Amino acid sequence: MANVTMEEFEALLQESFEIDTPEEGSVVKGKVIAIEAGQAIIDVGYKMEGRVDIKEFANPGEAPEIAVGDEVEVFLRAAENSRGEAVISREMARREEAWDRLEKAYADEERVEGAIFGRVKGGFTVDLGGAVAFLPGSQVDVRPVRDAGPLMNMKQPFQILKMDRRRGNIVVSRRAILEESRAEQRAEVIGNLAEGETVDGVVKNITEYGAFVDLGGVDGLLHVTDMAWRRVNHPTEILTIGETIKVQVIKINKETHRISLGMKQLQEDPWDAVAAKYTLESVHMGRVTNITDYGAFVELEPGVEGLVHVSEMSWTKKNVHPGKIVSTSQEVEVMVLEIDGTKRRVSLGLKQTQRNPWEVFAEQFPVGTEVEGEVKNITEFGLFIGLDGDIDGMVHLSDLTWEGRGEDVIGDYRKGDMVQAVVTEVDTDKERISLSVKALGGDKFAEAVGGVKRGSIITVEVTSIEDGGVEVEYEGMKSFIRRSDLSRDRAEQRPERFGVGDKVDVRVTNVDAKTRRLGVSVKAREIAEEKEAVEQYGSSDSGASLGDILGAALKGDE
Q: How far is CA 546 from CA 522, 540, 542, 554, 558, in A?
């Protein structure tokens, strides 16, 4: 040692300084030499001591574990402060250590352990053993979490999604861990299930279209149509959340791991007995379960429903919404019209359980019967009259009046007027009733000219003298004899030679039932009488004059 030069001694001294003196900004080992006033006094070597709050030695949610004599790692921020003490930090040492560990875990895609300890905007903060990470709200669980309280300060695994040491950013996910374990659990449960198997499940969630059932770690969908054979409007009619139910596994999709469940498959299918129980044209009581624009669904028994099409609802109410005829839950009597076992459809009729009102009307009011009803509608071709049985009859323009045209008198009628008419026709197939107003009191023209035909000689009474002829009357029916028909002799064709009240024999030249007119002529009667006289009393070769023949005829009449 005596041989050591001063230069060598200085070099050795410097070397010892470099070895013993820790470098600022690095993690160093130290020993707890005392604990006082909530702080641990730590000797970091080379006679340097520093103070650290003991809370820095605690994990989130746990009490600090530190005692005199413990060896700990701390971060040396500065070798000496104003009080001559080393500035050290346990937290920073933990962070440095944690970052090294986390970077390795991130590279190896390994899970890391941590604890959620605080809330921040958009998520939570997580202590990963010294390093603070951000846990986005969407990554907390597979479903949105309303209350994260039970998850706070609890050690649990996380997956690192992203990290940047330079910026000090770490993003982690708890959801990824849950999904992974859930997928493993799902695969295991699904592997133990078989289609057609009956299992117990707990109703976990209810939606409008069905319910999600927990089969022990895996959910299956029980669709509303598979809950019962009858119509179910909403799953809450049958199920409640938390209820344990027996279900049958209908289908398992191995790729998507979706499971379809059914409850009705465990019950007897009512359709097996439908054909025998509901024979064609049989009548049954049912309950209206649903009303649509095209008809109403009627439940005959739980699981067996039939459709009453709108066309089969009423004999009389056409183009009316079914909701105006029946109401939901109403008990109705229906007739079975058709059964399709393959499509599981029953066609029902509502109107078939009631008598055809046109047939009833025909029985009660045969042709020729007088009826009374209210004018329901006025159209360009006639009147529609409301009749018994909620049906209408029609009075055509041509059946409004004997005199003149129907177009001229239809304007006298108003909606709501009470009108009397005679039934002239009832067509039950076409659901049509024809009425006549003019037929009230009978057909006077037909009665008056009942035995009169063309060529008949009748006696008429003169009622008026006109320039062009005379007006006459026969049994209340008016006719007009033109001047040229007043006599065969032109000199006698003067209207003024007749007087009102005169009785005149005339020959019927025409009977027109349509215009209700009789054509009559004095001239035609005279010509007919002359012809008859010639046939009886003269011949073409006798040389007798017309005057002789007429004289003979007159004598014969006497």
A: 20, 11, 11, 12, 18
Nearest Cα residue to 42 out of 63, 27, 59, 61? 27
Rounded CA-CA distance 536/552 in Å is: 10
Contacts of 403 (CB under 8 A, 6+ apart): 516
Instruction: Determine the Cα–Cα distance for residues 228 and 170; give it in Å rounded to an integer.
Output: 52
State the pLDDT at residue 558.
47
* Residue recorded with tokens 């007995």: 273
HSE (side-chain half, CA atoms, 13 Å) at 501: 0
Question: Rounded to whole angstroms, how far apart are CA atoms 235 and 203?
Answer: 11
Bridge partner list, 221:
212, 260
Q: Which two tokens stand for residue 46?
A: 């080379």
Q: Are strands 49-53 and 503-512 parallel, antiparallel or unpaired?
A: unpaired
The dihedrals phi and psi of 187, each to the nearest 5 degrees, come to -60, -40
Q: Tell me the pLDDT of the chain averaged across its residues.
A: 80
The count of other CB atoms within 10 Å of the CB of residue 237 is 12
Structure tokens at 460: 């008429």
Q: What is the pLDDT of residues 251-301, one digit of tens each?
A: 888 777 788 899 988 888 777 778 788 888 899 999 999 999 999 999 988
Total Cβ atoms within 10 A of residue 376: 14
Residue 312 near residue 332, CB atoms below 8 Å: no
Q: How far apart are CA 243 and CA 201, in angstroms?
A: 8
Alpha helices, DSSP H, located in 320-417? 357-364, 406-409
